Amino acid sequence: MLLATAIGSPAFAQGGEAMQMQDHGGMSMPPARDRSATPKTSEKPIPKYAEVDPGKPQEDVGGMDMDDNEPFFQFLGDRMEYRTDGNQPTYLWDVDSWYGTDYDKLFVESEGQVATDGRTKDANVEVYWNHTFATFWDTQLGLKHDFKPNDGRTFLAAGVQGLAPYIFKADATAYLSEDGDASAKLEVERTFLLTQRLQVIPRLETNLALQDAPRYNTGSGINDVELELRVSYQITRKFAPYVGVNWRRDLGETASMKRADRNDINSTYFSTGLRVWF
C-alpha cells in the first residue's frame, strides 16, 4: 500500500516526466563495428626467411661443424684374451682402429694368436678405406697380409660391414691372394643385454674358398665354422672383462687335408679377457 501511494504521488509523477524529458544529445556513442570488414594489416608484412631473395641461398652466419664432418680416432680391443684347450694355452687379440669422418675413414685391424712361449701361431693385418653407403653400412677396400711361420701371403680385400636387422653386427669380406686364390669370410655377432652392464655376446665365423690350396691346408668349399659365446660385465662403458667358450671345426676338403697331416679338426677353448675402447 505504501508503494502504491508513493507511485501515485505528484512528486513521483514529476520525477518520471523529468527522466523522460532528459536531453541525451550531448552523449557521443561510438559507431557499431562492422564485423564483415577485413581487419587492417601492417603496411609492410614480415617476410618469410626463405622468401627474402628467392633462388638465392641465405647468408651463412657461421657456427660449429656437424660431428659427421669432423675427423675422429677410435681404438677398439674387441677381444684380448688368454685361452686354453687344456693342453696348449695361447694369447689371442682381435683389435681395430680407425681415423676419419662418419662417411670416410682409414680402418686398420689385426687378429692373431701367439703361444705362451712367444711362438706365433697365426696373425694378420688388414688396412681398408671405409666408405658409408647406407645407414649403418660401410664398404671396405684394401689389403690383408697373413703372417704365418715361415710363410706369408698378401691379399686384395673388398667387403661390407654394418648392422643387419635385429642389431646383428655383420662383416663379409672377399679376398684374392697374390697366387690368384679366391676366398671369403663371414662374421656375425650380436650383443644381448641381461642388465645395463651384464651382456651375453654370441659370435659366428666361417671361411670358404673357391679352389684347393694344399700348400695352406685349405680345400674348396666351406673351410670351417667357429662358434663363440662370451659373458661380459661392463665396469665402465669403455672397460669390460669377460669369460667365454669357443668351439671350432674344420669342414669338407680342408678337414680331409688336416686329417692326412694328423692335425686336429675340432677344438674347444675356454677364455678370459678384456674388451676396451677409447
What Rg is obtained from the alpha carbons, in whole angstroms?
41 Å
What structural category arises from helix and sheet content? mainly beta
Judging by the overall fold, what is the CATH architecture?
Beta Barrel
Mean pLDDT: 84
Describe the structure.
By secondary structure, the chain is mainly β. The protein has one domain (70-277): Porin. 9% of the residues lie in helices and 53% in strands. It is built from three helices and 13 strands. It has helices at residues 2-7, 10-20, 252-260, and strands at residues 72-84, 90-100, 104-115, 120-134, 137-148, 151-164, 168-177, 182-189, 192-193, 198-209, 221-233, 239-250, 266-277. A twelve-stranded antiparallel beta barrel has the order 1-2-3-4-5-6-7-8-10-11-12-13. 12% of the residues are buried.
